[in-house]
Amino acid sequence: MEHQERALAAYVEQVAADPETLGVVVIGSLARGVEREDSDVDVYLVVTAEAFARATVIDRWAWIDRQGLDYPGSYIDVKLCDLSYLRTAVEKADDPTRASFAGARVVFSRTEEIADLVAAISVLDDAAWRGRIRSHIAQAHLHGGYFLRQAEEHGDPFLLQHAGLHLTLAAARAALASAHRLMPGPKYVYKLIREVPSPEGFVAAWDEALEKPGIVTANPLLAILDEWLGRGQSRDESLSIFIRDNELAWLRGTIPAEYF
Asked: Is the pTM of this model over 0.70?
């Protein structure tokens, strides 16, 4: 909307005067053209490596700017980054970070590299998507099989809820990965699982497993998931993948599968 674009232009004029500002990338609803009357303006502020280093020392990663200056309730929601951040994000950012750059618009830049990097962050190749499916299937096998069974056998209500939630998250993430859809964050999962293509009965089984965690509801969901995306992945294979993705993430310098 016009008032948000004016607010963005005013912010760009403000920060472009600083030689340590390398670029401004608008993200979120304004970038996608789905903003509401009262939407804020979300941006990544790209700064020099030196400015980024100084900010990280004091844990200044994000802040609100121009609050109330441009229209009633207005503010610029700023996240800080530098070129190294963007380059690293292309290689190994998690889904919420990648999703935040989908449809992003570079509105100010001192270097052409920013636009190239921004365009690449939200793109994964087929091999990466296949690997994610295998990882999420492994999560579903372990949480929906072993951990839920342990919870019921030991009467552990916390483990029951934990395993049930992680089973449904893993099943949803596998479905999203099969459709090459990034997961912007947990608050979007319930809606997204209904938007991506899935076999008949999958969403109903997912809902049941979410509402009533336990082996009885997990088994139908796992059966559909295995037939659809499991590709013969055995429980032993899943165990090894689960250990790699979870228990050895610290050793491999990666993040656990639920945070991909």
From this structure: yes
Residues 154 and 156: their CA atoms lie apart, in Å, by: 5
Distance CA 23, CA 106 (A): 7
Tens of pLDDT, residue by residue, the chain (260 residues) = 789 999 999 999 999 999 999 999 999 988 888 888 878 999 999 999 999 999 999 999 999 999 999 888 899 999 999 999 999 999 999 999 999 999 999 999 999 999 999 999 999 999 999 999 999 999 999 999 999 999 999 999 999 999 999 999 999 999 999 999 999 999 999 999 999 999 999 999 999 999 999 999 999 999 999 999 999 999 999 999 999 999 999 999 999 998 88
Task: Measure the CA–CA gap between 250 and 241, rounded to whole angstroms.
Answer: 14
Contact indicator for 140, 171 with CB cutoff of 8 Å: yes
CB of 134 closer than 8 Å to CB of 174: no
What are the structure tokens assigned to 27, written together? 């993200």
3-state secondary structure of 255: coil
